[in-house]
Amino acid sequence: MPLVAIPDVSDTLAGLEQTLAGIEQVLDVPSLKKRAEELEAVASAPDLWDDQSRAQEVTSQLSFVQGDIRRIESLRRRLDDLVVLVELAEGEDDADSWAEAERELAGLRKDISEMEVRTLLSGEYDAREALVTIRSEAGGVDAADWAEMLLRLYLRYCERHGWPVEVYDTSYAEEAGIKSATFAVKAPYAYGTLSIEQGTHRLVRISPFDNQGRRQTSFAAVEVLPVTEQTDHIDIPEADMRIDVFRSSGPGGQSVNTTDSAVRITHIPTGIVVSCQNEKSQIQNRAAALRVLQSRLLEVRRREEREKLDALKSDSAGSWGTQMRSYVLHPYQMVKDLRTEYETGNTSAVLDGEIDDFVETGIRWRRTQDGRA
Description:
Structural class: alpha+beta
CATH architecture of the largest domain: 2-Layer Sandwich
Radius of gyration: 24 Å
């Protein structure tokens, strides 16, 4: 016999069928397949790689669309198979079949829930790639170390999802850790997904830098912006920029480049400063820094437009500097999101990039907030 009553299994299957049908409708599977065919035609063009940036964009979009199609078709196939398995287990009253059905039911429920979150990413910029900046805040050397831990967390998260990442700039602290780091996540819907992570992250632990072993609280800030596209029309006059070149540096201030290839751009009207030192040439670093500046100016324009429309709400998911998550490693182990109240005691997994439950819960929570497109 099943561990849950048969009517409950039937109700659960009916609920999953309704949810999956809704996902298929919202994502419009026929349109996805048509889009995949169009991208395949573009990707097969012999001169595609003459423009590497364009080629990477096309292949990335194609991979993402094909991935969505595979996931939806797999979920549909698994649900259909599960219905048959439940009927078989019910007819034969077989304990092994019921155990297998219940395992698959639990896994399918989780996977459909994750796919459903994709349908909630409908904001103006949600489909964009993301530009993420992490900065150490209050807490001295512990804060710098914490910022580097967060950098690793997000890089591991992206790696788990197969999202390409390009690190534009890393500013190392003197003793340990980083002052700041900026990287691009080159995957569709990366902005819509990761924007829920924006805000201040608080760490409580026994400081490894305190010879008296005292508890230390430190803070690091995460900023997430949508990557600009050609249609954004963010034109920056040359007169509005001051461009400086300098020699790239690594941990401890050591030089990692023998030429002045690193680039720093100051946007004079706003005072925004960006830099890039991870590319090999000054031209590449300048182009990357300009992309970062355009994304920052897009966010400025976006906020100004919201203010004019009186639509900028006190949404902690988008308010820069708002404390949104607490990571406690001592005297107990707990990571807790202060907006959704979601928490877990598996801190090591979270710090290794396993934040899917936090992200999913956050996206669902954000959907319920006023002022969220």
